[in-house]
Model the fold of this input.
Amino acid sequence: MSPDENLELLRQFAPTLRFDALERWRPGPVDRYLEHCTVLDEQEQPLTGTPPAEAAMTEHCGKPKARLNPLVNGPGLDDQLRSNEVLGAFGADQGLAGGGTAYGRVEPEGGALFLQYWLFYADNPCVLPPGRHDGDWELVQVRVERADDGFEATQVTLAEHGKPVTKKVEAALAKRGPEVFVAVDSHACYFKSGAQPMLPLSDTCQPVEADGVKPDIVLLPLAADKKDWAHWSGRWGMDGAEGTRMALRLGLKNTPPILRRLNFGAGESPPSPGLQSSWPSPKAFAGSGIRRKRFAVALRQFAHSLGEFTWPSEAPVVSIERIDEGRYAIEAKPAGRFPRRIARVSVAFDEVTADGNLRALAMYSVRTRDPAEVFKIPHEGELIWRAAGYNFLRQRGDPVIGEPIQ
Done:
């Protein structure tokens, strides 16, 4: 098939992405991220000529000790502050009403075509630690086969934190792309909305709007020399976890499970798409998803049924007071009874821009028993906020939308 035919096929079966009410990110273009990233060597010294990063990434493609730093001030910031700085640096131009950008490729294997949609997020926030890291790759994969009237989708595989789950496509839905629910902060993809029990923090996607928007598809060609950014051996961010640091010192492309245990739940930027197991063999990746669905998903559903006894059922009590220009005091009070009692509240802030769109500004998390905390939230337009409460088990209740702040 020609590149134009591949692109048309990718457009036909592109996923419809649905985002949680508190999500601040949409998958974005890699180019913008690389324009501002510095490439650091194993001594965390900048390589010459960066930023922009792409040329140095191509030149040093085989160096797994190299890392991208999207911020000038490095990894020393608190997770919450670093996430907000990355959002300010790379999230200003994204449209929260849209579905973002996906990088697509078509891979023939086993008599079928596998359509891969790679989604890049500049940040994996996880405002409630652990889990935060720079740079985040997610994957939606659709298997299509030829039919009398074109192509039909037969399977969809979603990478949930890198672990596949595969589902058969119903005949009535075989001519279009899948509906995918993106978990807040982690950006893991799921087949349905609501909570998906994980440890130590449940993944959740509770969209506000019923309608999703398909992402713009950009065809990602497979470079013959394997030296484009999709095959870069380095890390996509500044991971500070000890297990990851040891893997970097050893020059490992991936952090093995025995070292990952030393991260104690801290986040780790995933490998480049071309270095992930799904890239060379999408059929095997889908097969692993079939086997995993039989066991892991059933276990998760059982855990979810148990979690209903402790899930927060009351709305969080939040007050936001303007102190002066660009500074606001946030206070949250406990709500509900043990074990459903809300212990912490996360508040996401958006700004209504002059053209009527929403621009994500920041996310702050406060404890319900602490006094009010003051945060800087510079903005020009009307300030919109949404909040959700967590109990001591880190289960999240339903999101609420507050009154706009002028």
User: Anything to note?
Assistant: The longest strand covers residues 133-147. The chain has a mean pLDDT of 84. The two ends are 54 Å apart (CA to CA).
